[in-house]
Amino acid sequence: MSTHIGASPDQIAPYVLMPGDPYRARWIAETFLEDPVQYNDVRGMLGYTGTYRGIRVSAQGSGMGQPSMAIYAQELFDDYDVQTIIRVGTCGALSEAVNVRDVILGVAASTDSAMNVPRFRHVSFAPSADFTLARIAAEVAEERLLPLVAGGLYSADQFYSPDPETTRTLAGYGVLGVEMEAAALYTLAAQFSRRALALCTVSDHLLTGEETSAQERQETFEDMIVVALESIVRLEEKHPVG
Ligand code: HPA
Questions:
Q1: Average pLDDT over residues 226-242
Q2: Tens of pLDDT along 103-142?
Q3: Atom of ligand 1 nearest to the CA of 180
Q4: Is residue 29's pLDDT more than 90?
Q5: Which residue lies with its CA nearest to atom 7 of ligand 1?
Q6: For 68-85, what is the mean pLDDT?
Q7: Which residues are tagged catalytic?
Q8: Separation of 159 CA from ligand 1 center, angstroms?
Q9: What integer pLDDT is reported at residue 242 of this predicted model?
Q10: Which of 203, 207, 217, 220 most suits a substitution to test ligand 1, by most atoms within 8 Å of the C-beta?
């Protein structure tokens, strides 16, 4: 086991879907994976492994915010040799280019977090998605008619922002959505030379104030999980890690 995950090394698959909410990890496992087995409940951060169309896939909660995401992503990459993590989350829309219920594919993630200061000091590193995986996910979404928009995310440290001006500035620079985890995931994937992607359903619109109903959120979320899982199948066909 690692410090925060109580699994033996072979219990976690090379491919991991990461929702923020651990109950969503359980829901993903029970809804989409065959023969899911729970491997973690340390701190309630549930993790499961099963198979999807014959490929071993895990679903692991990340918790909220970059410090929590960084703990789980680092242990998955470093202690469990995970090759690919897809964050499957929600975000707030910052741009008129996206609507509630769209899915944002995070090409890159800006952040107000200081987490990378001790890593890169005066350099502002650009945490970015894996291009191969991003391209596959965009293809799969298009085939399945899932409304997916690719662009920048803002990984904010605070859900209740004391600084809406910064959010407006980022929107002015084309950033599409605000969430709280992608930048840490992308940075750690870069550190360990692994693949990562963040897919986020737009749950609320910061410009229009529009929100999705719980039912709509659930439906879009389901479509997004299928896109994530089918992307893993296609990635494994092209670049097998098994
Ligand atoms: N801010 C940060 N994270 C979020 C939001 C938001 O408005 N909506 C969904 N996740």
A1: 95
A2: 999 999 999 999 999 999 999 999 999 999 999 999 999 9
A3: 3
A4: yes
A5: 92
A6: 98
A7: 204
A8: 6
A9: 65
A10: 203
SS (H, E, C) 196-227: EEEEEEEEEECCCCCECCHHHHHHHHHHHHHH
**Ligand 1 mean position, distance from CA 237 (Å):** 34
CA pair distance 197, 110, nearest whole angstrom: 14
Q: Which fold has domain 9-238?
A: Rossmann fold (3.40.50)
> Residue 170 pLDDT more than 90?
yes
Q: 90 C-alpha vs ligand 1 centroid, how far in Å? A: 7
Please report how many Cα atoms fall inside a 13 Å half-sphere around the Cα of residue 202, on the Cβ side: 31
CA 191 / ligand 1 centre spacing (Å): 26
Neighbour count for residue 31 (Cβ, 10 Å): 11
Give the ligand 1 atom nearest the CA of 204: 8
In 3-state terms, what secondary structure has residue 47?
A: strand
Q: Where are the domains of the chain?
A: 9-238
Q: Which residues have C-beta within 8 Å of that of residue 7, sequence separation ≥ 6?
A: 1, 39, 40, 47, 80
| Whole-number Å distance between alpha carbons of 223 and 40 | 26
The strand pair at 34-40 and 84-93 is best described as unpaired
